[in-house]
Design a protein that fits this description.
The chain is of the alpha+beta class and 407 residues long. The chain is 22% helix and 31% strand. It has three domains: 94 residues, no CATH class; 163 residues, Beta Barrel (Cathepsin D, subunit A, domain 1); 116 residues, Beta Barrel (Cathepsin D, subunit A, domain 1), CATH 2.40.70. It has a six-stranded antiparallel sheet with strand order 1-11-10-22-23-12.
């Protein structure tokens, strides 16, 4: 899926009660955010000084947003924030007593053996209903094996903090075991989620199929749906987003995307998503077929129902579900304006050349694979071309990559 652009926030009529709800929602964030300042657990008196620069901007933003809807709720939130900061002196009671700065650094400095050469065939399954979510299983830092969405439309391995343990204490301990984060930042995905995450380097990841890597992992610590004001206070938008996709993390393998970081397979040179043969092939050569400059986005030519070819930037996105098509490429009879969906029976064909000699893929829209109609000039292929045949994405040439259609 593509890294999302922002949308306007919807209004909420029940903001008054959110100050109380926010306390539970941000408790893990408060503890995790402290990690952004170092790997050691600071003394009680130091917590407020360390966390305040991270928490206060979030609280200020929330207060400003709520003021327009309910000034009394904003006052409640400000009061709650003051109480939160004053209560941070007791947070170290929940911290693992056995962890200190030296042990945390040691944990980060001892990654598992990492392969950067060779070819690995990772078992790939399709999840969801209908089945549109390609996924592989992996264990992160010795944890339980979880399904990860294979997403050529983004780059970076992203998991929510809730994947790290069964409760706040075990999740916090797992964060300490990851060592010191190298940064804290914000990102998001099309489909309804923005999030704040911590990046940890040299994290061992063991994939089903025998591949082990050691590299950056992004841990989501706070998330919201920009179209749902209430999600600012529940801190579960990312988890809900993953549940909708039947996975517990996102494995972004795209070479040149909006991030949030880099693909864990970049050093292997190439990945091939082969859904018909149930494989994610890491390394090796690209599949035989038509190769285009750019990955995941390439310049293609689209024909609707055999009509004239039109140039389009196509985001070849295995995590894009049923995909999108710009309204400018369609006639009013080719989509339903009330649902913004392409009409079933419509044939969509993509070519590599303006003469229509080199077909990349073609399919007929059904009620279960109908793309959304959007504004702009860029389309998202969705998973459909991956269902038809293997597609490779190469990480070279650096800065552009290449997409090879093998169907």
């Amino acid at each position: 899926m593509a890294v999302r652009d922002g949308k306007k926030h919807s209004r909420s009529a029940s903001a008054r009660r959110y100050g109380v709800a926010l306390g539970g929602a941000l408790s893990a964030l408060v503890a995790a955010a402290a990690m952004a300042t170092g790997s050691a657990a600071p003394a009680k008196a130091d917590f407020e000084t360390l966390i305040d620069p991270i928490i206060q901007p979030i609280l200020t933003s929330l207060t400003d947003s709520i003021t327009g809807f309910d000034p009394a709720a904003a006052a409640d939130l400000t009061s709650w924030g003051d109480s939160l900061m004053a209560s941070l002196n007791s947070i170290d009671a929940a911290l693992p007593a056995s962890m200190d700065s030296s042990s945390a650094v040691a944990a980060a400095a001892e990654p598992a053996a990492s392969s950067t050469t060779g070819t690995y065939d990772l078992p790939l399954s399709l999840l969801g209903s209908p089945a549109t979510e390609p996924a592989v299983n992996a264990s992160i830092d010795g944890g339980s094996s979880v399904p990860l969405l294979v997403d050529t439309g983004s780059s970076g391995l992203v998991v929510p903090y809730t994947d790290l343990g069964s409760n706040y204490l075990s999740q916090l301990e797992a964060l300490f075991n990851l060592g010191a984060p190298t940064g804290i930042s914000e990102s998001g995905y099309s489909g309804g989620v923005d999030y704040i995450y911590l990046t940890y380097n040299n994290v061992p990841v063991d994939y089903a199929g025998g591949l082990s890597t050691s590299g950056p992992v992004d841990v989501e610590i706070y998330s919201w749906d920009p179209s749902n004001f209430g999600s600012y206070f529940t801190n579960d938008a990312f988890q809900g987003f993953l549940t909708d996709n039947s996975v517990q993390g996102i494995l972004g393998v795209g070479p040149v995307t909006g991030g949030p970081t880099t693909s864990p397979f970049e050093s292997f040179g190439n990945v091939t998503v082969d859904i018909p043969n149930h494989e994610l092939i890491v390394g090796g050569s690209p599949v035989a077929g038509t190769s285009l400059v750019g990955a995941p986005s390439s310049t293609d030519y689209i024909s609707i129902d055999g009509g004239a070819l039109q140039q389009v930037s196509n985001d070849v996105d295995s995590g894009g579900v049923t995909g999108t098509i710009p309204a400018s490429l369609l006639t009013s009879s080719e989509y339903n304006s009330s649902t913004d969906l392409v009409n079933p029976g419509t044939t969509i064909s993509l070519y590599s050349d303006s003469a229509g000699k080199d077909l990349l893929y073609t399919y007929t829209v059904t009620p279960t694979n109908d793309p959304y109609v959007v504004s702009g000039s860029t389309m998202d292929s969705g998973v459909e071309p991956f269902l038809l045949g293997p597609i490779s994405m190469s990480y070279l040439p650096s800065g552009t990559g290449a997409t090879t259609f093998g169907g």
